[in-house]
Amino acid sequence: MTNQINTAMDSLSAALKSNIIPNQEYLLQGSVLDSAVEVLLHRLRGLCDNVDSGPESFHDHEMCFSIRRGSPPEQPLLLRVRRALDYQEMPWQLRYIGQPELGDKSRPTIVRSSIDIATSSTVVEFLTELGCRLDFEYIVRGYMFRKGRMKVTVSKIFKMGQGKLPESVEPISQSYLVELSVLAPSGQDAIAEDMRIFAEQLKPLVQLEKIDYKRLAH
Hints:
The protein has helices at 2-17, 37-47, 123-130, 190-200, 213-217, and strands spanning 24-33, 56-67, 77-84, 92-97, 110-119, 133-147, 150-160, 169-171, 175-184. The protein is an alpha+beta fold. The protein has an 8-stranded antiparallel β-barrel. β7 (150-160) and β8 form a beta hairpin. The N and C termini lie far apart (50 Å).
């Protein structure tokens, strides 16, 4: 068993050194009012790859956890657990998200570390045993489009109610969250320029930007 673990760790280390693991997320975000979302979806159908089949729909429950690595101002480690409500036989997803790297003003997108892992449904109990704290949870429902390596999601965020899922939810706003993202190995910054060009084609329906969450918190 020890030999198997060592072999797996060696393989992971080799993959990291070869820079083939997609561990960086390039991200732009924006929002669109409920009244304009159909126009945006129509534009995306024309621009993206899955024109004939249409976009993929999703209906997920997401839980956001954090765990302190040290005393403040040390930033906590952020983890997200996501499960599909419409395909409950699918594996759950555990995602690590690093702190956003805004970089200089000339950088077209946010860049942040991101690693996704498929897990069993016991992942919540596992994180709780590790000492992680559930900060918040919500329901997200929407559509996903593909354009090459780029992923576009248009999603409605719902607040959790006291009753049974998925009925006991209410929207948190009268708008949809729009995200343009790419997962890639480190150092592929040319992707960000492709994203900027694609985002320009969605104006004026939606303005996709680098969101500085630290600035919003103050």
